[in-house]
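Exercise 7 asks you to align residues with C-alpha coordinates for two separate proteins.
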Amino acid sequence: MEAWIQQLITQSLEWALFAVALVTFLESLALVGLLLPGTVMMASLGALVGSGELGLYPAWAAGFAGCLIGDWVSYGIGWKFQGPLHRWKYLQKYKGLLDKTEHALHQHSMFTILVGRFVGPTRPLIPLAAGMLELPVRKFLPPNIIGCILWPPLYLLPGILAGVAIDVPKAAQGGSFKWLLLGAALLIWLGGWLCWRWWRSGKSRDWATAWLPPERLRWAGPLGLIVAVAAFVGIQFHPMMPVFRHLLWQVFIA
Protein backbone atom coordinates (compact mmCIF):
# COMPACT_ATOMS: atom_id res chain seq x y z
CA MET A 1 0.00 0.00 0.00
CA GLU A 2 2.72 2.47 1.01
CA ALA A 3 4.78 1.65 -2.12
CA TRP A 4 1.70 2.24 -4.30
CA ILE A 5 1.11 5.65 -2.66
CA GLN A 6 4.76 6.57 -3.22
CA GLN A 7 4.39 5.65 -6.90
CA LEU A 8 1.32 7.88 -7.19
CA ILE A 9 3.26 10.81 -5.73
CA THR A 10 5.90 10.63 -8.45
CA GLN A 11 3.44 10.60 -11.38
CA SER A 12 2.19 14.20 -11.51
CA LEU A 13 0.73 17.05 -9.46
CA GLU A 14 -2.79 15.69 -9.90
CA TRP A 15 -1.78 12.24 -8.69
CA ALA A 16 0.06 13.75 -5.71
CA LEU A 17 -3.12 15.61 -4.72
CA PHE A 18 -5.10 12.41 -5.19
CA ALA A 19 -2.59 10.67 -2.91
CA VAL A 20 -3.16 13.34 -0.20
CA ALA A 21 -6.93 12.86 -0.45
CA LEU A 22 -6.58 9.07 -0.45
CA VAL A 23 -4.28 8.92 2.58
CA THR A 24 -6.43 11.30 4.62
CA PHE A 25 -9.55 9.36 3.59
CA LEU A 26 -8.05 6.04 4.68
CA GLU A 27 -6.64 7.55 7.89
CA SER A 28 -10.17 8.71 8.77
CA LEU A 29 -11.97 5.54 7.69
CA ALA A 30 -13.38 3.36 10.45
CA LEU A 31 -10.77 0.87 11.72
CA VAL A 32 -8.65 1.17 8.55
CA GLY A 33 -6.94 4.21 10.06
CA LEU A 34 -5.72 2.07 12.96
CA LEU A 35 -3.70 -0.10 10.57
CA LEU A 36 -2.44 2.44 8.02
CA PRO A 37 1.05 4.03 8.44
CA GLY A 38 -0.45 7.36 7.41
CA THR A 39 2.05 9.51 9.32
CA VAL A 40 4.94 8.24 7.19
CA MET A 41 2.98 8.74 3.96
CA MET A 42 1.90 12.25 4.86
CA ALA A 43 5.47 13.15 5.83
CA SER A 44 6.51 12.26 2.27
CA LEU A 45 3.70 14.38 0.85
CA GLY A 46 4.52 17.23 3.22
CA ALA A 47 8.13 17.14 2.02
CA LEU A 48 6.84 17.79 -1.52
CA VAL A 49 4.98 20.82 -0.18
CA GLY A 50 8.04 22.06 1.69
CA SER A 51 10.25 21.72 -1.37
CA GLY A 52 7.77 23.66 -3.53
CA GLU A 53 6.80 20.75 -5.79
CA LEU A 54 3.25 20.71 -4.40
CA GLY A 55 1.20 23.73 -3.33
CA LEU A 56 0.18 23.91 0.31
CA TYR A 57 -3.36 25.08 -0.32
CA PRO A 58 -4.26 22.49 -3.01
CA ALA A 59 -2.85 19.80 -0.70
CA TRP A 60 -4.83 21.29 2.21
CA ALA A 61 -8.04 21.22 0.15
CA ALA A 62 -7.40 17.62 -0.94
CA GLY A 63 -6.73 16.62 2.67
CA PHE A 64 -9.91 18.35 3.85
CA ALA A 65 -11.99 16.52 1.24
CA GLY A 66 -10.38 13.17 2.05
CA CYS A 67 -10.88 13.30 5.80
CA LEU A 68 -14.40 14.72 5.50
CA ILE A 69 -15.48 11.89 3.19
CA GLY A 70 -13.75 9.31 5.41
CA ASP A 71 -15.50 10.61 8.53
CA TRP A 72 -18.93 10.64 6.93
CA VAL A 73 -18.53 7.18 5.43
CA SER A 74 -17.55 5.95 8.92
CA TYR A 75 -20.48 7.80 10.50
CA GLY A 76 -22.86 6.24 7.96
CA ILE A 77 -21.46 2.75 8.55
CA GLY A 78 -21.90 3.15 12.30
CA TRP A 79 -25.47 4.43 11.92
CA LYS A 80 -26.54 1.74 9.43
CA PHE A 81 -24.84 -1.29 10.98
CA GLN A 82 -24.71 -0.50 14.67
CA GLY A 83 -26.17 -3.86 15.69
CA PRO A 84 -23.80 -6.11 13.70
CA LEU A 85 -20.84 -3.89 14.60
CA HIS A 86 -21.44 -4.38 18.33
CA ARG A 87 -21.32 -8.15 17.75
CA TRP A 88 -18.40 -8.16 15.31
CA LYS A 89 -15.50 -10.16 16.77
CA TYR A 90 -12.84 -8.01 15.12
CA LEU A 91 -14.25 -4.90 16.81
CA GLN A 92 -14.05 -6.62 20.18
CA LYS A 93 -10.27 -6.12 20.08
CA TYR A 94 -10.95 -2.40 20.35
CA LYS A 95 -13.89 -2.70 22.71
CA GLY A 96 -12.17 -0.84 25.57
CA LEU A 97 -11.21 2.06 23.33
CA LEU A 98 -14.63 2.08 21.68
CA ASP A 99 -16.41 2.09 25.07
CA LYS A 100 -14.30 5.05 26.24
CA THR A 101 -15.02 6.86 22.98
CA GLU A 102 -18.77 6.29 23.32
CA HIS A 103 -18.67 7.48 26.94
CA ALA A 104 -16.78 10.65 25.93
CA LEU A 105 -19.31 11.30 23.14
CA HIS A 106 -22.15 11.00 25.64
CA GLN A 107 -20.51 13.48 28.01
CA HIS A 108 -18.91 16.02 25.66
CA SER A 109 -19.81 15.24 22.05
CA MET A 110 -18.52 18.41 20.33
CA PHE A 111 -15.23 18.52 22.28
CA THR A 112 -14.63 14.78 21.75
CA ILE A 113 -15.23 14.94 17.99
CA LEU A 114 -12.94 17.96 17.57
CA VAL A 115 -10.07 16.83 19.79
CA GLY A 116 -10.38 13.18 18.74
CA ARG A 117 -9.46 14.12 15.16
CA PHE A 118 -5.94 14.95 16.41
CA VAL A 119 -5.49 11.78 18.50
CA GLY A 120 -4.29 8.83 16.42
CA PRO A 121 -6.07 5.85 18.06
CA THR A 122 -9.45 7.58 18.32
CA ARG A 123 -9.45 9.39 14.95
CA PRO A 124 -10.93 6.49 12.91
CA LEU A 125 -13.23 5.38 15.75
CA ILE A 126 -15.05 8.57 16.77
CA PRO A 127 -17.16 8.98 13.59
CA LEU A 128 -18.01 5.27 13.71
CA ALA A 129 -18.98 5.49 17.39
CA ALA A 130 -20.99 8.67 16.73
CA GLY A 131 -22.98 6.83 14.07
CA MET A 132 -23.48 3.78 16.31
CA LEU A 133 -24.84 6.09 19.02
CA GLU A 134 -27.09 7.82 16.45
CA LEU A 135 -25.59 11.17 17.40
CA PRO A 136 -27.64 13.84 15.60
CA VAL A 137 -26.05 15.31 12.48
CA ARG A 138 -26.41 18.85 13.90
CA LYS A 139 -24.08 17.84 16.78
CA PHE A 140 -21.62 15.91 14.63
CA LEU A 141 -21.29 18.32 11.70
CA PRO A 142 -19.79 21.55 13.20
CA PRO A 143 -16.85 20.01 15.14
CA ASN A 144 -16.26 17.54 12.31
CA ILE A 145 -15.87 20.31 9.72
CA ILE A 146 -13.62 22.36 12.00
CA GLY A 147 -11.43 19.33 12.70
CA CYS A 148 -11.18 18.43 9.01
CA ILE A 149 -10.10 22.00 8.21
CA LEU A 150 -7.42 22.19 10.90
CA TRP A 151 -6.03 18.66 10.76
CA PRO A 152 -4.44 18.34 7.25
CA PRO A 153 -1.87 21.18 7.58
CA LEU A 154 -0.86 19.94 11.02
CA TYR A 155 -0.50 16.42 9.63
CA LEU A 156 1.62 17.69 6.73
CA LEU A 157 3.75 19.99 8.91
CA PRO A 158 6.62 17.58 9.82
CA GLY A 159 7.15 16.80 6.14
CA ILE A 160 6.88 20.50 5.21
CA LEU A 161 9.59 21.40 7.73
CA ALA A 162 11.80 18.59 6.43
CA GLY A 163 11.27 19.68 2.82
CA VAL A 164 12.14 23.29 3.64
CA ALA A 165 15.25 22.20 5.58
CA ILE A 166 16.45 20.18 2.58
CA ASP A 167 16.26 23.35 0.46
CA VAL A 168 18.51 25.36 2.80
CA PRO A 169 21.70 26.12 0.80
CA LYS A 170 24.37 23.55 1.67
CA ALA A 171 27.33 25.89 1.27
CA ALA A 172 25.86 28.44 3.66
CA GLN A 173 24.68 26.24 6.51
CA GLY A 174 28.01 24.49 7.09
CA GLY A 175 26.48 21.04 7.50
CA SER A 176 25.35 21.66 11.08
CA PHE A 177 22.06 23.51 10.77
CA LYS A 178 19.96 20.57 9.56
CA TRP A 179 21.16 18.38 12.42
CA LEU A 180 20.55 21.12 14.97
CA LEU A 181 17.10 21.70 13.48
CA LEU A 182 16.33 17.98 13.67
CA GLY A 183 17.53 17.84 17.27
CA ALA A 184 15.40 20.87 18.21
CA ALA A 185 12.35 19.35 16.50
CA LEU A 186 12.81 16.07 18.38
CA LEU A 187 13.18 17.88 21.73
CA ILE A 188 10.06 19.97 21.04
CA TRP A 189 8.11 16.85 20.08
CA LEU A 190 9.35 14.99 23.17
CA GLY A 191 8.45 17.92 25.42
CA GLY A 192 4.95 18.09 23.93
CA TRP A 193 4.50 14.33 24.31
CA LEU A 194 5.62 14.37 27.95
CA CYS A 195 3.24 17.25 28.69
CA TRP A 196 0.43 15.31 27.01
CA ARG A 197 1.26 12.25 29.15
CA TRP A 198 1.40 14.45 32.25
CA TRP A 199 -2.03 15.91 31.50
CA ARG A 200 -3.45 12.44 30.82
CA SER A 201 -1.72 10.74 33.76
CA GLY A 202 -4.09 8.55 35.73
CA LYS A 203 -6.74 8.59 32.99
CA SER A 204 -5.44 5.67 30.92
CA ARG A 205 -2.82 2.93 30.91
CA ASP A 206 -0.73 1.78 27.94
CA TRP A 207 2.78 0.58 27.05
CA ALA A 208 4.44 3.72 28.42
CA THR A 209 2.74 3.74 31.82
CA ALA A 210 5.32 1.39 33.40
CA TRP A 211 8.14 3.73 32.34
CA LEU A 212 6.28 6.96 33.04
CA PRO A 213 4.00 6.55 36.06
CA PRO A 214 2.17 9.66 37.33
CA GLU A 215 4.73 10.36 40.04
CA ARG A 216 7.55 10.44 37.47
CA LEU A 217 5.54 12.59 35.05
CA ARG A 218 5.13 15.25 37.74
CA TRP A 219 8.74 16.28 37.13
CA ALA A 220 9.33 14.84 33.63
CA GLY A 221 6.42 16.82 32.13
CA PRO A 222 7.55 20.29 33.31
CA LEU A 223 11.20 19.44 32.55
CA GLY A 224 10.26 18.35 29.02
CA LEU A 225 8.35 21.61 28.52
CA ILE A 226 11.34 23.70 29.69
CA VAL A 227 13.72 21.79 27.39
CA ALA A 228 11.30 22.15 24.45
CA VAL A 229 11.01 25.93 24.94
CA ALA A 230 14.79 26.24 25.32
CA ALA A 231 15.35 24.25 22.10
CA PHE A 232 12.85 26.39 20.19
CA VAL A 233 14.36 29.66 21.43
CA GLY A 234 17.93 28.46 20.97
CA ILE A 235 17.55 27.44 17.32
CA GLN A 236 16.24 30.93 16.50
CA PHE A 237 19.77 32.34 17.04
CA HIS A 238 21.42 30.12 14.45
CA PRO A 239 22.74 32.20 11.49
CA MET A 240 20.78 30.04 9.02
CA MET A 241 17.44 30.42 10.77
CA PRO A 242 16.45 33.58 8.79
CA VAL A 243 17.01 31.63 5.56
CA PHE A 244 14.89 28.75 6.87
CA ARG A 245 12.10 31.13 7.95
CA HIS A 246 12.14 32.81 4.55
CA LEU A 247 11.84 29.49 2.71
CA LEU A 248 9.07 28.39 5.06
CA TRP A 249 7.22 31.66 4.49
CA GLN A 250 7.37 31.06 0.74
CA VAL A 251 5.44 27.82 1.25
CA PHE A 252 2.55 29.73 2.85
CA ILE A 253 2.38 32.58 0.34
CA ALA A 254 3.00 30.57 -2.86
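Second protein for Exercise 7:
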Amino acid sequence: MVEEPRIPFDFEVLYEDERIVVVDKPHFLATTPRGMWYRETALIRLRERYGEPDITPAHRLDRLTAGVVVFVRRPEFRGAYQMLFQNHVAVKTYECLAPCAPAARPRFGTVERLEPPRVFPLLRRSRIVKRRGILQAYEEPGEVNAESVIELGAVGANGIGSFDGGRGGCADGRGAGRDERSGCGGVRSGGRGPGVRAYTLRPRTGKTHQLRVHMASLGLPIVGDDFYPVLREPRPYDDFSEPLELVARTLEFTDPVTGEPRRFVSRVPLGGR
Protein backbone atom coordinates (compact mmCIF):
# COMPACT_ATOMS: atom_id res chain seq x y z
CA MET A 1 0.00 0.00 0.00
CA VAL A 2 1.30 3.45 -0.91
CA GLU A 3 1.46 5.77 2.09
CA GLU A 4 -0.71 8.87 1.73
CA PRO A 5 1.56 11.91 1.32
CA ARG A 6 1.44 14.49 4.09
CA ILE A 7 0.08 17.92 3.17
CA PRO A 8 2.11 20.34 5.33
CA PHE A 9 -0.58 23.05 5.41
CA ASP A 10 -3.58 23.23 7.69
CA PHE A 11 -6.80 25.20 7.71
CA GLU A 12 -7.83 28.01 10.06
CA VAL A 13 -11.27 27.93 11.65
CA LEU A 14 -12.93 31.26 10.83
CA TYR A 15 -16.21 30.62 12.64
CA GLU A 16 -18.13 27.91 14.43
CA ASP A 17 -21.43 27.42 16.20
CA GLU A 18 -23.59 24.41 17.03
CA ARG A 19 -24.56 23.96 13.35
CA ILE A 20 -21.60 24.90 11.15
CA VAL A 21 -17.82 25.22 11.08
CA VAL A 22 -16.30 27.61 8.53
CA VAL A 23 -12.67 27.01 7.60
CA ASP A 24 -10.05 28.80 5.55
CA LYS A 25 -8.72 25.97 3.38
CA PRO A 26 -5.12 26.21 2.14
CA HIS A 27 -3.91 25.35 -1.32
CA PHE A 28 -3.14 21.64 -1.96
CA LEU A 29 -5.52 20.31 0.74
CA ALA A 30 -8.56 18.55 -0.74
CA THR A 31 -11.97 19.37 0.71
CA THR A 32 -13.16 15.74 0.81
CA PRO A 33 -11.62 12.29 0.23
CA ARG A 34 -11.02 11.44 -3.41
CA GLY A 35 -8.51 9.27 -5.22
CA MET A 36 -5.34 8.94 -3.16
CA TRP A 37 -6.46 11.54 -0.60
CA TYR A 38 -8.34 10.49 2.54
CA ARG A 39 -6.87 11.60 5.87
CA GLU A 40 -5.07 14.49 4.20
CA THR A 41 -8.33 16.30 3.49
CA ALA A 42 -10.10 19.14 5.26
CA LEU A 43 -13.14 16.96 6.03
CA ILE A 44 -11.28 14.12 7.74
CA ARG A 45 -8.97 16.49 9.61
CA LEU A 46 -12.01 18.41 10.85
CA ARG A 47 -13.85 15.25 11.94
CA GLU A 48 -10.77 14.05 13.82
CA ARG A 49 -10.12 17.46 15.42
CA TYR A 50 -13.67 17.74 16.79
CA GLY A 51 -14.40 14.03 17.21
CA GLU A 52 -17.59 14.49 15.18
CA PRO A 53 -18.04 11.89 12.40
CA ASP A 54 -21.24 13.55 11.12
CA ILE A 55 -19.50 16.69 9.87
CA THR A 56 -20.24 17.13 6.14
CA PRO A 57 -19.29 19.84 3.63
CA ALA A 58 -22.04 22.19 2.46
CA HIS A 59 -20.02 22.74 -0.74
CA ARG A 60 -16.52 22.08 -2.07
CA LEU A 61 -13.42 23.77 -3.39
CA ASP A 62 -10.91 22.12 -5.72
CA ARG A 63 -7.82 20.74 -3.97
CA LEU A 64 -5.65 23.40 -5.59
CA THR A 65 -8.00 26.30 -4.75
CA ALA A 66 -7.74 27.96 -1.35
CA GLY A 67 -10.36 29.85 0.62
CA VAL A 68 -13.61 29.74 2.58
CA VAL A 69 -15.46 26.41 2.98
CA VAL A 70 -18.55 25.73 5.11
CA PHE A 71 -19.03 22.40 6.92
CA VAL A 72 -22.26 21.29 8.61
CA ARG A 73 -22.00 19.58 12.00
CA ARG A 74 -25.42 17.91 12.37
CA PRO A 75 -27.38 15.85 9.83
CA GLU A 76 -30.66 17.70 10.42
CA PHE A 77 -29.10 20.94 9.15
CA ARG A 78 -27.28 19.58 6.09
CA GLY A 79 -30.06 20.19 3.60
CA ALA A 80 -30.64 23.79 4.65
CA TYR A 81 -27.00 24.80 4.18
CA GLN A 82 -26.31 22.68 1.12
CA MET A 83 -29.28 24.22 -0.69
CA LEU A 84 -27.66 27.66 -0.33
CA PHE A 85 -24.99 26.47 -2.71
CA GLN A 86 -27.05 24.20 -4.92
CA ASN A 87 -29.46 27.08 -5.60
CA HIS A 88 -26.60 29.60 -5.97
CA VAL A 89 -28.01 31.75 -3.16
CA ALA A 90 -24.62 32.08 -1.42
CA VAL A 91 -22.55 34.89 -2.94
CA LYS A 92 -18.92 34.00 -3.65
CA THR A 93 -16.04 36.28 -4.60
CA TYR A 94 -12.70 34.89 -5.75
CA GLU A 95 -9.34 36.53 -6.32
CA CYS A 96 -6.56 35.35 -8.59
CA LEU A 97 -3.27 36.30 -10.19
CA ALA A 98 -3.12 36.23 -13.97
CA PRO A 99 -1.20 37.93 -16.78
CA CYS A 100 -1.45 41.67 -17.08
CA ALA A 101 -2.39 41.71 -20.76
CA PRO A 102 -5.27 42.69 -23.03
CA ALA A 103 -8.15 40.23 -22.93
CA ALA A 104 -8.26 38.02 -26.01
CA ARG A 105 -11.38 37.18 -27.97
CA PRO A 106 -12.63 33.75 -26.80
CA ARG A 107 -13.45 31.00 -29.26
CA PHE A 108 -16.91 30.31 -27.84
CA GLY A 109 -19.43 32.32 -25.90
CA THR A 110 -19.60 36.06 -25.38
CA VAL A 111 -17.83 38.90 -23.60
CA GLU A 112 -19.78 41.96 -22.50
CA ARG A 113 -18.17 45.14 -21.22
CA LEU A 114 -20.13 46.21 -18.15
CA GLU A 115 -18.71 49.74 -18.02
CA PRO A 116 -17.84 50.59 -21.65
CA PRO A 117 -15.55 51.72 -23.11
CA ARG A 118 -13.46 50.14 -20.30
CA VAL A 119 -12.63 46.47 -20.86
CA PHE A 120 -13.08 45.58 -17.20
CA PRO A 121 -15.32 44.71 -15.52
CA LEU A 122 -16.62 42.25 -18.08
CA LEU A 123 -19.20 39.50 -18.16
CA ARG A 124 -18.00 36.22 -19.62
CA ARG A 125 -20.73 33.79 -20.74
CA SER A 126 -20.29 30.39 -22.37
CA ARG A 127 -21.22 26.73 -22.30
CA ILE A 128 -18.80 24.63 -20.19
CA VAL A 129 -18.81 20.83 -20.23
CA LYS A 130 -16.92 18.42 -17.97
CA ARG A 131 -16.93 14.77 -19.06
CA ARG A 132 -16.27 11.94 -16.63
CA GLY A 133 -12.74 10.57 -17.01
CA ILE A 134 -11.42 13.74 -18.68
CA LEU A 135 -9.33 16.02 -16.47
CA GLN A 136 -10.14 19.27 -18.25
CA ALA A 137 -13.47 20.99 -18.65
CA TYR A 138 -13.96 22.68 -21.99
CA GLU A 139 -16.17 25.18 -23.79
CA GLU A 140 -18.39 24.29 -26.72
CA PRO A 141 -21.14 25.92 -28.79
CA GLY A 142 -24.61 25.75 -27.34
CA GLU A 143 -26.83 27.06 -24.59
CA VAL A 144 -24.93 29.14 -22.04
CA ASN A 145 -24.58 27.47 -18.63
CA ALA A 146 -21.66 29.42 -17.11
CA GLU A 147 -21.38 33.13 -16.28
CA SER A 148 -18.53 34.97 -14.56
CA VAL A 149 -17.91 38.66 -13.86
CA ILE A 150 -14.20 39.52 -14.09
CA GLU A 151 -12.85 42.74 -12.59
CA LEU A 152 -9.44 44.23 -11.99
CA GLY A 153 -8.40 43.46 -8.42
CA ALA A 154 -8.11 46.12 -5.75
CA VAL A 155 -5.29 46.55 -3.25
CA GLY A 156 -6.50 46.23 0.33
CA ALA A 157 -4.96 48.09 3.24
CA ASN A 158 -4.11 44.82 4.97
CA GLY A 159 -2.63 43.25 1.84
CA ILE A 160 -5.48 40.79 1.41
CA GLY A 161 -6.50 40.78 -2.21
CA SER A 162 -3.29 42.34 -3.37
CA PHE A 163 -0.05 41.08 -4.82
CA ASP A 164 3.20 42.86 -4.19
CA GLY A 165 5.91 40.33 -4.86
CA GLY A 166 9.01 40.07 -6.97
CA ARG A 167 7.38 37.81 -9.57
CA GLY A 168 5.18 40.51 -10.97
CA GLY A 169 3.37 43.08 -8.91
CA CYS A 170 -0.11 44.24 -8.18
CA ALA A 171 -1.47 47.45 -9.53
CA ASP A 172 -4.86 49.08 -9.15
CA GLY A 173 -4.74 50.68 -12.54
CA ARG A 174 -3.00 53.87 -11.42
CA GLY A 175 0.40 55.17 -12.41
CA ALA A 176 2.32 56.07 -15.50
CA GLY A 177 2.21 53.81 -18.51
CA ARG A 178 -1.34 52.60 -17.90
CA ASP A 179 -2.66 50.34 -20.62
CA GLU A 180 -6.35 51.24 -20.94
CA ARG A 181 -7.09 47.92 -22.67
CA SER A 182 -5.66 45.79 -19.89
CA GLY A 183 -5.58 47.98 -16.78
CA CYS A 184 -1.90 47.18 -16.36
CA GLY A 185 -0.54 50.51 -15.28
CA GLY A 186 2.52 50.17 -13.09
CA VAL A 187 2.70 46.38 -13.15
CA ARG A 188 6.25 45.03 -13.21
CA SER A 189 7.41 41.81 -14.76
CA GLY A 190 10.66 41.53 -12.85
CA GLY A 191 12.38 40.45 -16.05
CA ARG A 192 10.45 37.19 -16.15
CA GLY A 193 8.13 37.83 -19.06
CA PRO A 194 4.73 39.51 -18.92
CA GLY A 195 3.74 40.95 -15.56
CA VAL A 196 0.88 39.59 -13.49
CA ARG A 197 -1.79 41.36 -11.51
CA ALA A 198 -4.75 40.60 -9.27
CA TYR A 199 -8.25 40.05 -10.63
CA THR A 200 -11.54 39.74 -8.77
CA LEU A 201 -13.86 37.00 -10.03
CA ARG A 202 -17.57 36.75 -9.28
CA PRO A 203 -19.12 33.50 -10.55
CA ARG A 204 -22.86 33.63 -11.22
CA THR A 205 -22.99 29.87 -11.83
CA GLY A 206 -21.00 26.95 -10.48
CA LYS A 207 -19.67 24.76 -13.28
CA THR A 208 -16.54 22.67 -12.68
CA HIS A 209 -13.35 24.72 -13.19
CA GLN A 210 -15.52 27.58 -14.45
CA LEU A 211 -13.25 30.46 -13.40
CA ARG A 212 -10.11 28.72 -14.64
CA VAL A 213 -11.72 27.98 -18.01
CA HIS A 214 -13.08 31.49 -18.41
CA MET A 215 -9.79 33.18 -17.54
CA ALA A 216 -7.82 30.91 -19.88
CA SER A 217 -10.30 31.54 -22.70
CA LEU A 218 -9.51 35.25 -22.45
CA GLY A 219 -5.78 34.61 -22.74
CA LEU A 220 -5.39 35.28 -19.01
CA PRO A 221 -4.66 31.85 -17.48
CA ILE A 222 -4.39 31.85 -13.69
CA VAL A 223 -0.83 31.64 -12.38
CA GLY A 224 0.07 28.09 -11.34
CA ASP A 225 -2.71 26.42 -13.35
CA ASP A 226 -1.51 23.03 -14.62
CA PHE A 227 -4.76 22.33 -16.50
CA TYR A 228 -5.56 25.45 -18.51
CA PRO A 229 -5.06 26.43 -21.24
CA VAL A 230 -3.02 23.23 -21.77
CA LEU A 231 -2.60 20.16 -19.60
CA ARG A 232 0.91 20.01 -18.18
CA GLU A 233 2.88 17.03 -16.97
CA PRO A 234 1.76 16.05 -13.44
CA ARG A 235 3.93 17.47 -10.69
CA PRO A 236 5.15 15.34 -7.77
CA TYR A 237 2.64 15.29 -4.92
CA ASP A 238 5.21 16.83 -2.58
CA ASP A 239 5.90 19.79 -4.90
CA PHE A 240 4.22 22.77 -3.24
CA SER A 241 6.41 25.36 -4.93
CA GLU A 242 3.82 26.85 -7.28
CA PRO A 243 0.25 26.96 -5.96
CA LEU A 244 -2.70 27.79 -8.15
CA GLU A 245 -3.10 31.49 -7.42
CA LEU A 246 -6.85 31.30 -6.90
CA VAL A 247 -8.55 32.04 -3.56
CA ALA A 248 -12.23 31.90 -2.63
CA ARG A 249 -11.92 35.22 -0.85
CA THR A 250 -15.39 36.00 0.49
CA LEU A 251 -18.58 34.07 1.10
CA GLU A 252 -21.87 35.73 2.02
CA PHE A 253 -25.33 34.33 2.74
CA THR A 254 -28.32 34.65 5.02
CA ASP A 255 -28.21 31.87 7.60
CA PRO A 256 -31.09 29.53 6.67
CA VAL A 257 -31.70 28.61 10.32
CA THR A 258 -31.32 31.89 12.21
CA GLY A 259 -31.91 34.42 9.40
CA GLU A 260 -28.70 36.25 10.33
CA PRO A 261 -26.43 37.68 7.62
CA ARG A 262 -23.11 35.84 7.37
CA ARG A 263 -19.91 37.03 5.74
CA PHE A 264 -16.58 35.22 5.88
CA VAL A 265 -13.24 36.36 4.46
CA SER A 266 -10.23 34.18 3.63
CA ARG A 267 -6.83 35.27 4.92
CA VAL A 268 -4.86 33.20 2.41
CA PRO A 269 -2.57 35.64 0.53
CA LEU A 270 -1.99 35.75 -3.17
CA GLY A 271 1.53 35.44 -4.48
CA GLY A 272 3.08 33.18 -1.85
CA ARG A 273 3.00 32.57 1.86
